[in-house]
Amino acid sequence: MLNHYLPVLIFLLVALVVGVAPLLMGSSLGPHRPDSEKLSPYECGFEAFEDARMKFDVRYYLVAILFILFDLEIAFLFPWAVVFDQIGMTGFLAMMLFLAILVVGFIYEWKKGALEWE
């Protein structure tokens, strides 16, 4: 049983070493000379005009969530399209139900004005 998972374990260990080793080497071998210029916030070569922690409009997050939702829909459609001829009418109806639920949700978001930018 362990023989089946040994390549995966080796892959994870190599990935961990490749990811962590440069970080450790940079922090241990790199110069440590902090000064006020290096510790100040950087904004295109100029002094910061205002607080760097500006509040974002909630609509950005809403659009991002909607994008992820419909991107995930496409991720479900690809495997379905590959096995479409093997799953028959039951698979077709299940996917149509899934798409109908997403369309109803999209229409709801549209009617509520979540996609408007004014």
Explain this structure:
This is NADH-quinone oxidoreductase subunit A. This protein has about 120 residues and is mostly helical. It has a single domain, classed as NADH:ubiquinone/plastoquinone oxidoreductase, chain 3 (Methane Monooxygenase Hydroxylase, Chain G, domain 1), CATH 1.20.58.1610. It is about 75% helix and about 0% strand. The relative contact order is 0.06. The mean pLDDT is about 85.
Topology:
Layout: H1 2-29, H2 36-39, H3 58-82, H4 84-112
Structural class assignment: mainly alpha
**What is the domain tally?**
1
> What general outline do the C-alpha atoms trace?
flat
What is the CATH superfamily classification? Answer: NADH:ubiquinone/plastoquinone oxidoreductase, chain 3
State the separation between the terminal residues, measured CA to CA: 60 Å
- The CATH architecture term is Up-down Bundle
- The helix content is over 70%
- Briefly note the CATH topology name: Methane Monooxygenase Hydroxylase, Chain G, domain 1
Compute the CA-based radius of gyration.
Answer: 25 Å
Question: Number of helical runs?
Answer: 4
Outline:
This protein has 118 residues and is an all-alpha fold. Helices cover 73% and strands 0% of the residues. It has one domain: NADH:ubiquinone/plastoquinone oxidoreductase, chain 3 (Methane Monooxygenase Hydroxylase, Chain G, domain 1, Up-down Bundle).
Offer a few descriptive terms.
about 120 residues; Methane Monooxygenase Hydroxylase, Chain G, domain 1; about 75% helix; flat
